[in-house]
Amino acid sequence: MTRGTRPAVLVSVMFAVCMALAGCTVDRQLVRAANALDRDLQSGATRRIEARVHPSLMSAQGVEGPGLPDGEGIGRVSVVQVTTMMELAPGVALPMVWTADGWKFDADLSELFPDGSPRDALRSFLRALDLERWEIVAGFAPRRFREELTPDAVRRAWTGGPESSELQLARDFLRAGLSGPLFSDAHSATLMLAGDRAAHLEREGAHWVVVDI
What is the pLDDT of residues 111-166, one digit of tens each? Predict the structure, then answer.
């Protein structure tokens, strides 16, 4: 089969990069490489694509058959996907994919915030604060408060409001005592914290919400 008649192939490139939450900035060299690879794809520059992709990270497959013979190159390229893993919290990493609009999460972010148990809800509440996902933080408020609580109001309260220092101190106590003794029944739960503090939760159906910390 000649190169001109070879079926389109899929080139899948995985960059094993983990970016810590504290940094959370995309590697500029990785962005430049992704842009260059995209330009080569659009222009059909097969040889330059081959030069940019490490052999151990490149696979070439015919649409209806096995990979191309050794030494035959990658043929006509139809799709290039550049992905990475981003570490959002210790032990929590999600896939990201490079698009025309930059890096996008390639996963359902709601999976990051389970609330099926009191301790899970508190852990997710802290994660939402760390990620500054204010709409998620607002969602952990009890229903009687949620209707009037906007993400922007939550952001202001935690970052620059008159009670922000006290809120951040309470957050730090919660983080330090997350594995402490927790008492719960079918409707409410209390996590005992240091300094005579406690985190109180209520159950709303299958979900737990944070009353106060």
Answer: 778 899 999 999 999 999 988 889 999 999 999 988 888 999 999 999 988 889 99
d(CA 140, CA 188): 14
Answer whether 77's CB lies under 8 Å from 49's CB.
Answer: yes
In the chain, domain spans? 3-107, 111-212
Instruction: Give the tokens for residue 121.
Output: 């809800």
Give me the sheet containing 182-184, strands edge to edge. Answer: 182-184, 188-192, 198-204, 207-212
Q: 111-212: what fold?
A: Nuclear Transport Factor 2; Chain: A, (3.10.450)
Q: Are the C-beta atoms of 108 and 72 separated by less than 8 Å? A: no
The one-letter amino acid at 103: W
User: pLDDT of 36-58, one tens digit each?
Assistant: 766 766 676 666 666 655 554 54
Measured CA to CA, the distance from residue 139 to residue 210 in angstroms comes to: 9
Element (H, E) at 127: helix 118-130
What DSSP designation does 62 have? B
Determine contact, residues 34/101, Cβ cutoff 8 Å. no
